[in-house]
Amino acid sequence: MARDVIIACDFAGRQQTLDFLDAFEGRRKPFVKIGMELFYAEGPEIVRELRRRGHPVFLDLKLHDIPNTVRKAMRVLSALDVDICNVHASGTIEMMRAALEGLTRPDGTRPLLIAVTQLTSTSEERLQRELLVGAGMNETIVKYAQNAREAGLDGVVCSPLEAGMVKAACGADFLTITPGIRFADAAADDQVRITTPARARELGSDYIVVGRPVTAAPDPVAAYERCLQEFLNQ
Ligand code: C5P
Predict the structure, then answer these.
(1) Is the model's pTM score more than 0.70?
(2) 122 CB within 6 A, ligand 1
(3) What fold, for 4-232?
């Protein structure tokens, strides 16, 4: 699959999402990310509707449960015809293998399956003090990415600043999907480890996930096109 810019549609409901996407009518249909908020508010119909409108979809539900439950849940999601799904790598290799099995359709096709290594909101201090993980943050991220690769997954979500380290450990073809993107002349909001779309390209990201720099821009279409131009050189 080609590299691309994914817009995080972090909206509370269907109408807001469609109003936002209507501005792109007549242009390239952006790759969109549907997260828990929108999915829990609107259910699977919002996914079907955006697919019918021609948007590639990253369904960001971050599954984490016992392998049998994840396998069955993924079987349901695979019928939604999305392009990317994800799980938490901390669910273990066995859980990730079960997710992959559930996601694979009878004809052998399936969406890409990506693992979350460590959430960017988890600090190294909390990892050690609350979760009793003795290894450092980077060591944990690399190990979880290697587990995902071993389970047969296609890549991980990580910071662009970690993309090189993940590729070095798991191979250049192991996908990195990277949030934390900001334009050079913009505010960071609550993100900490941020880079520009152009820098993310240099660091080897395969997909960048961009939320507020596009959704909250005065001209979202222009902001999206700036992302494409910087990230894909087009
Ligand atoms: O608005 P912003 O560009 O910060 O949005 C980034 C998106 O990527 C949000 O949907 C956020 O939940 C998601 N994300 C993230 N960091 C992660 C994983 C997901 O920012 N580690």
Answers:
(1) yes
(2) no
(3) TIM Barrel (3.20.20)
